[in-house]
Each structure stands twice: as structure tokens, then as C-alpha cells.
Specification:
47% helix; two-stranded antiparallel sheet; 215 residues; 6 helices; globular
Amino acid sequence: MPGAPNSPPKIAAPTTPAAPVDELARRVLRRLGPSRIALHLDVWKGAPARELLEPFDRAEKLYEAQDYRGADSALDQLSVRFAEPRWPTLPEPFKGLRVRIPAPMPPHYDPEFALPAEEKERRRRHREAELQVALAKASVAWASAHAFPTTDLAPLVAQAEASIAQPDNDAAIWTELDAIWSGIRARVPPPAARPPAGGAGRPSVEPPAAASEEP
């Protein structure tokens, strides 16, 4: 109508790709998602070094090519580099992405040493699930703080937190977590390398422009 005020643009709802079906692919996705956010953190002072981005970029390409074993191996290399003393220490919970280097101790000092193998595995899986929930919560918070759409991801974090709080309910969280990591990969761009000395500075991370529909 002539003279009528313009109606606000309609914002398209964010979409999330379906999580992969292959179990190894899902495990790789659970490493790729938080690693993407970890490489965007402020500890890198604008951009991570190429030595960190190379294994990440290789893992992403291999994942897209459905070479999940190769992607997992590249992420192993990234986890080793995260732990190298030449780099800043990642904050919690992203510190959990580093390769674990346990302090040497006699086996009988391990409080789980005498436990049955099944109980050891159950505890390991529970610790893995706790770390994944913490990483998902921190990653969604980072994305939200940087203006990436997370309205559909935040409830999944709450559901995962509720599931992990219930005894022997770890299996229930993986559907929510895989949806979160798929959403993170679809909305947050890959990190860019630090420019060479004397080169142009790296632009800050910008969220994607909101899609609009004609009224």
C-alpha cells in the first residue's frame, strides 16, 4: 500500500545438515565441531598459526571426502599440536581437545586399576560424554556471542545437560550433540590462518548475512 511503512524483513530460520549415520563419521564430527571453535578463540590473538590450521583443514577436506579414518588421524595430529608448549594454553573446556599425556605412575596408583574392564569402559564413555556436553555448551555460547544463530541449538544443549545428569543415560545425549556440531559447522566459517609478517591483517569473523524474503 502506498505510504504504508515498510514491513521488517522475514528472517529465514537457520538450517542444520543431518548428522552422518556412520559411527566413525559421527566421532570425527564430534572433534571437528569443537576444534573449529577452539581455533577461533581469542588466545590466538586474531588468527591461529598455520601449523595448527594445516591438520584441521586436512581433517575437514578428508571428512567431506568421506575418508573418516584419514580425518580422524589428522585430528590426532591437531590434538598433539594443541598440547605443544609453544602455543597458548586453551581455556576449559577446549583444553580437553589436547592429546592426553598422563603423568607416569605405577598401575596400582590408578584408582580404576582394579575395576572390571566393562566398568572402566563405562567410566571412560561417561567422561567423554561430560566433555562433549561442556564443549557444546561453550561452543554455542561463543557462536551466540558472535551473532551466529543458535536459537535452535541452545535447547539441544539444555537437553544434553539434562541427559548427562541422569545416571547411566549417556547414550541419550549423542543425538543432541551431533545435531549441535552439525549446526556449528554449517554456520561458523572455518578459521583463517595468521597472515605472514608484514602482510595484511585478518578480518574479524563475521556472521553470515541474514536471509530475507520479499513480503
